[in-house]
Structures are given as C-alpha cells and as structure tokens.
Amino acid sequence: MELEEPDKANLVEKPTLPEETIELKPKMTLLNGVTVIVGSIIGSGIFVSPSGVLKNTGSVNMALVVWITSGIFSMIGAYCYAELGCMIRKTGADYAYIMVTLGKFLAFIRLWVECMIVRPCTVAIVALTFSIYAVKFFFPECEPPDEAVRILAAVCICILAFVNCWDVSWATAVQDIFTYAKLLALFIIIATGIVQLSRGKTENFNWDDTETDFTRIALSFYSGLFAYNGWNYLNFVIEELQDPVRNLPRAIAISIILVTVVYVLTNVAFYTTLTVPEVLGSEAVAVTFAKVLYGPMAFMIPVFVAMSTFGGVNGILLTSSRLFYAGACEGQMPEIFSMIQVDKMTPAPAVLVSAFLSLCYLCSSDIFSLINYVGFATWVSIGLAVFCLPYLRWKHPEWERPIRVQLIFPIIYIIASIFITIVPMIASPVETGIGTAIIMTGIPVYFIFVAWKDKPAFIKKMLASITLSLQKLIVVVPPPKKTL
Q1: Does the chain have fewer CB atoms within 10 Å around its N or its C terminus?
Q2: Which among 223, 185, 186 is positioned nearest to 50, based on CA atoms?
Q3: Which DSSP letter does residue 478 get?
Q4: Distance separating alpha carbons of residues 363 and 455, to the nearest angstrom
Q5: Residue 42 region, left (φ>0) first, then alpha (ψ -120 to 50), else beta?
Q6: pLDDT of res. 105
Q7: pTM of the full predicted structure?
C-alpha cells in the first residue's frame, strides 16, 4: 500500500506564511485527555452486558473480584504505555512502538487487523447500540425496525466524521460533554446502589455457585478486560496532547482509577437489586435495574446509554483515524492518509476512511462474530507493545525516558497477556483459528503493497495520479517528516 511520492510539481501546496507548519497541533488539555480515555472505555458494555463476567464466574463476589482485577491489570498496562508514550512520541501508540522495536512486518500486521477489522467493527457495533437505545423511546413495547436502526447508526457515524474533520477542538468538546453524561448516568445508578445498601440489600453478595472450571474463570477475565478496552487510546493522539510528559501519565492514572471505581460500584449497585438469574437473563441489565427502581423515570437510562455510546463512537473514531495517519506516515498505508487538511489542521483523509469502513460494516449482520474472531489479536498486540519496554531498556538504554517503569510490571503484564490469549484458544479453537486466518490475510497485502518497492512505472504513475486528485479534492498536504 506504500505509494511513491509524486513529483513536487504535482503536489498541492497551501500558500501559507513561511513560519506556519502543516501538522497536527497539540490542542488537547489534561481534561481532554481524561475524557478521551474515559469516554473510549465506557461505552455500552457496563450498561448492557455485565452478565458476561457473571456467566463465567457463577457468583457475585467472584464477578466483583474479576472486575477489580481487570482494572488493576489495565492500570499496569497503562503504566507501561506511559513510559513508551513519553519515550516514543509518535501517533499510533502500540503500532508505533512495535514498528520501532520489532520492525515493519509485525507492525503492519498489527495495523492491518486494527485498522481494517477491529476498529471499524467496534465503531459499527457501538453506533448500532446508540441507535437502538436512541429509538427505544419510540418503540417501548417492541424491537425497533432494523432499517431505522442502521440508518440512524450511519447518521451518527457521518456526523461524528464531520466533527472530527472540521476541528479537533470540536471532537474533544463532544467527547467532554458525552463523557460527563455517561458518568452522570453511572453516578445515578451508584447513588441508588448506596441507598439500597443502606437498606440492607446485601443478600446477593456471596460465593455461592462460584465456578470451579479454571478456563471459565479465565474467560471471565477476557470479558472483564474487554470492558476496559480503550485505556491506551490517548497514546494514539499523543502528538495532539499538550505537554505529554506531564499530562499523559496523569490522564492515564486519573482515568483508569476513575473507571475501575465506577465499574465496581455500578456492579455493586446492580447486585443490590437484581439476583444472579435476573442479571443472566437480561440483555440490558441497566434497563432492567431502572424498571425495578425508577418507575416512570426509567426512560432516563436508555437516553443515557444512547449518549454514552454516541461519545464512545466519537472517541473510537478520533483515535482510529490517527492509526491510519500513523501507518501512512510510515509508508504502510496509502500516502493520502498521512496528509493534513490545510485549513483545519486535521487528518481528514484518515478520518474519512475510518468512517467509510465503519459504514461498510453496518451492512453486515455478523459483526459480533468478526469481533470475537480477532478479539484475542488485540491482547497479542498490546502484549507485544509492552514487551517493547524491557527490550528497548536492553537495546537502547541511552534513549531518554521521562518516566521509568519498574520492570516487574511489564513482566507481569506480558505473562498475563500470554495467559488470556492462550486460554481462549483452548476453549474456542474454531473461532481462534478463523481469527488467525483473518489476521494472516495481511501477509500477502504486506509483501505486495508495502515490501515490493520496484513496482512498474505505470503503477507508480497511476498511484501518484490518484493521490494528486484526492489532494486537490480534500485540500490536504503532507506533514513535515519527524524523527523519533
């Protein structure tokens, strides 16, 4: 997918003042960073399916242990990413770390899976969840029409794509507002739980029927960690974060602690009112909880879930586009994706392709299976990225490290990543095999489009012509080259 640079005469250049540089600008504050992480982590999961953990643990107390442990595990990973992010200040997060440490091939496979399957599928799923709950008010007694749900999901993606193309400040403002909305909803549930606890509603908190099958407990961690997925998203936009050495570790620490506390207290609130069978039998635990306790005000929860998922789509789209941008800057994606809109200083082509792929997945009715197939790939790549930390300590001890993590933390994380990758392979060999096959499709793409440098002249000319046409259409130019 690497495109040769066209002749300078063919490049669209902006008539700017000499001192102006076309690049991503650091507009994100510490508060913006916190809301990006919190908004990306807290999507539909905590409202809709905490039963995923309970199903594999069997008891409420063990489920709470899994939620707490998953939060601690995510904190360790985020702590490791803080050192990597402050040392390798490149957009793209784990893709950039794997590129620098382990080379282009493994970095491309990571990029391929994340850009082409995981992120767009996730955007589509969260957008569908948003639309389902947004129209639930109009269809209280039945399922909303599938066409209406998909059209509204498409509208959601298109609106947020426009916002992200227009101004990073707009995108972070959307993230801020909807993060506050989802936290308000969760705080309402938590406050209700505290009231229930004060009334002595503790009969569901026990170890009864705790699962004894080791693999089932491991699978429950897989579900719990999926709910925390997104803690590394701020690293994807580090070039746009003000004072990253100071703000990146602070944003990570504040966000993960906040999300862990909120998740655990929300689950406690659910279990003060709902029994194990009620939780397992509910497709939307938060809605069931609201119907029992809030009466005529129960409609608030679907509204807040819709707001939560709208912010979730924005956070994923914001960071996903930066992954395309980072890949293009490294020559592993079409050159057009590395270009910056000259007026808005946003990676508009990368945003548009992220939104387009997400819209394509709205046409599929099997999105959840795709996510299940490649879900383990996420933990493989994050584990690989954390492995980069001790490797670079050994290989490049001279590199500046504003933050130095004790080596015990990446070692613990790498071992745990191996564990949560291998166990699902044993428990679900068919799905894992299909997921591996999907990942392997990136190999021929790499060797044909990236590794093959001596392409025929007519192909180079055609690619350069396409790049030039798209430059003129979107009014974008390449950013200045940056080094580590």
Answers
A1: C
A2: 223
A3: P
A4: 34
A5: beta
A6: 92
A7: 0.77
Q: Distance of CA 465 to CAs 12, 245, 258, Å?
A: 12, 40, 49
Angle at CA 121, nearest 5°, toward 118 and 127?
135
* Distance between CA atoms of residues 117 and 358, nearest Å: 9
In three-state secondary structure terms, 375 is helix
Closest CA to 253 of 418, 75, 376: 75
CA–CA separation, 239 vs 242, rounded Å?
Answer: 8
Rounded to whole angstroms, how far apart are CA atoms 1 and 301? 45
**Residue 384 contacts residue 374 (beta carbons within 8 Å):** no
Q: Report residue 283's pLDDT band, with 50, 70 and 90 as the boundaries.
A: low
Rounded-to-integer distance, Cα 227 and Cα 243, Å: 29
> Do 225 and 17 meet the contact criterion of CB atoms below 8 Å apart?
no
Identity of the residue numbered 296 = P
Rounded to a whole number of angstroms, the CA Rg of the chain reads 23
> Which residue shows structure tokens 């990146």?
248
**What whole-number distance in Å separates Cα of residue 310 and Cα of residue 50?**
20
Q: Tens digit of pLDDT for each residue in 22-45?
A: 555 666 788 888 887 887 788 766
Which residues, listed in sequence order, are joined to residue 477 by a DSSP beta bridge?
A: 340
Largest CA distance in the chain: 77
**Axis crossing angle, helix 104-113 with helix 300-329, rounded to the nearest 10:** 150
- The encoded tokens of residue 292 equal 């029992």
Task: Tell me how many helices (H) and strands (E) the chain has.
Answer: 20, 2
Residue 137: count other Cβ atoms within 10 Å of its Cβ.
12
